Amino acid sequence: MFESIDQMRDGIAEALKKKKHFTVFDNDLSKFWPAARHTRQKQVEAIQQFAKKHGWEVTIRDQGLIATFRKISSEPAGVPKSRKGMTDSQ
């Protein structure tokens, strides 16, 4: 699907304009972070740094290697959106 890391970056960014998340599979991830050159942990860390550099979160599942990218949320974890802007007295 992606022939360069820049093409992957642009593809993820474009997809995240329309969707909440975008998944990239092992066949593309391994082109840019090959398992033979890295241990799996180094591969995961490199993908996490790539996501952080571009303002995304990433969840990595190790069934092969699957990375799901999302825009980084500015809301604190665990705060329901329906309570946004409400005070404790409301």
Structure overview:
By secondary structure, the protein is α+β, with helices and mostly antiparallel strands. The chain has one domain: Ribosomal Protein S8, Chain: A, domain 1. It is built from three helices and three strands. It has helices spanning 5-18, 26-32, 40-53; strands at 21-25, 56-61, 66-71. A three-stranded antiparallel β-sheet has the order 1-3-2. Strand 2 and strand 3 (66-71) form a beta hairpin. The protein is globular, with a radius of gyration of 16 Å. The termini are far apart. Residues 83-90 have low confidence and may be disordered.
Q: How large, in whole angstroms, is the Cα Rg?
A: 16 Å
Helix fraction, binned, reads 25-40%
Percent of residues in β-strands: 15-25%
Give the helix tally.
3
Order of strands across the main sheet: 1-3-2
Shape, principal axes of CA atoms? globular
CATH class: Alpha Beta
SSE topology sketch:
Elements: H1 5-18, E1 21-25, H2 26-32, H3 40-53, E2 56-61, E3 66-71
Antiparallel strand pairs: 1-3, 2-3
What attributes does this structure have?
90 residues, alpha+beta, Ribosomal Protein S8, Chain: A, domain 1, three-stranded antiparallel sheet, 3 helices, disordered C terminus
Short description:
The protein has 90 residues and is α+β, with helices and mostly antiparallel strands.
